[in-house]
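Project outcomes to date are best conveyed with an example. Our students and postdoctoral researchers have been running inverse folding experiments weekly, and each run begins with a structure described purely in tokens. The record below, which covers 280 residues, was selected by the lab manager from last quarter's runs and is presented without edits.
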């Protein structure tokens, strides 16, 4: 069985890695007024953070179902199956779009996978699936591996300005108001597929230290882990943090990712996060 791997743009997998492992990408959209951009195609993360300095905060939208159908039909020419790895269904309808599209194509079996997370931790799932597919592994075997990885997948992040999350409906007005009033830098995470506060922390420095403590707890078993530092237009800070963490945890493979246009719209510039999962 030949299996294709698809993910959406919010996995933020670098283009060279997507090409190396033959991962197909469906872009989400960022909308500034009447201008619609395909994330990661028409608009990079660095361009996005420049745009929002002079324009009103954009809105975002999931890919049209027809885009999924078209891609699945193309892949059916030389694949028996396709595994689609998508951002959490609790914050976007993208996963459901793939499910709906899967009922509209013939000649290929579609396996939608809800990562229940986003950014490069979502990307870890897609990369693992692609590596297994390149070895000729069966789609059911790959899906079982992905489900198993969920047990070790974690992601924590902090935002500089709670108003973005509140405006996008990802955080209540009361939580945003109280947080801003107290100068709180809440540590957030995904729980039951949605973004919720994990702990309330007063400063950025303490929030980042808490993420490191949480990583330390998980990697203390000595098993192989991969981790990603995720930034919203704070690349230099991310690079320094990776140097520091690589020295502290030499057995963990650290990479640097970013909050791209769609996720950055809801979190805002200056956000920092870290995610990890076990590595096979």
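After processing, the design step wrote out the following sequence:
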């Amino acid at each position: 069985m030949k299996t294709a791997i698809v993910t959406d743009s919010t996995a933020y997998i670098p283009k060279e890695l997507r090409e190396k492992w033959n991962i197909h990408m469906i872009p989400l959209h960022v909308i500034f007024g009447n201008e619609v951009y395909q994330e990661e195609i028409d608009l990079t993360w660095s361009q996005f953070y420049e745009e929002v300095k002079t324009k009103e905060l954009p809105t975002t939208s999931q890919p049209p179902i027809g885009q999924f159908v078209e891609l699945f039909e193309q892949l059916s020419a030389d694949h028996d199956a396709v595994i689609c790895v998508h951002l959490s269904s609790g914050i976007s309808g993208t996963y459901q779009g793939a499910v709906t599209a899967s009922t509209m194509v013939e000649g290929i079996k579609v396996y939608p996978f809800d990562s229940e997370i986003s950014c490069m931790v979502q990307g870890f799932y897609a990369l693992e699936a692609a590596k297994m597919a390149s070895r000729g592994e069966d789609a059911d075997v790959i899906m079982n591996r992905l489900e198993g990885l969920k047990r070790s997948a974690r992601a924590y992040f902090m935002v500089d300005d709670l108003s973005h999350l509140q405006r996008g409906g990802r955080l209540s007005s009361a939580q945003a108001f109280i947080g801003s009033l107290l100068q709180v830098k809440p540590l957030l995470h995904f729980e039951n597929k949605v973004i919720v506060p994990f702990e309330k922390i007063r400063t950025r420095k303490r929030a980042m230290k808490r993420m490191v403590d949480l990583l330390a707890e998980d990697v203390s078993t000595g098993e192989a882990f991969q981790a990603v530092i995720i930034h919203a237009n704070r690349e230099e800070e991310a690079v320094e943090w990776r140097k520091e963490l690589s020295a502290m945890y030499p057995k963990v493979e650290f990479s640097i990712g970013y909050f791209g246009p769609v996720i950055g719209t809801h979190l805002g510039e200056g956000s920092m996060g870290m995610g990890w999962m076990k590595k096979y």
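The CA atoms of residues 51 and 144 lie 41 Å apart. The longest helix spans residues 119-134. The training component of this project remains on track.
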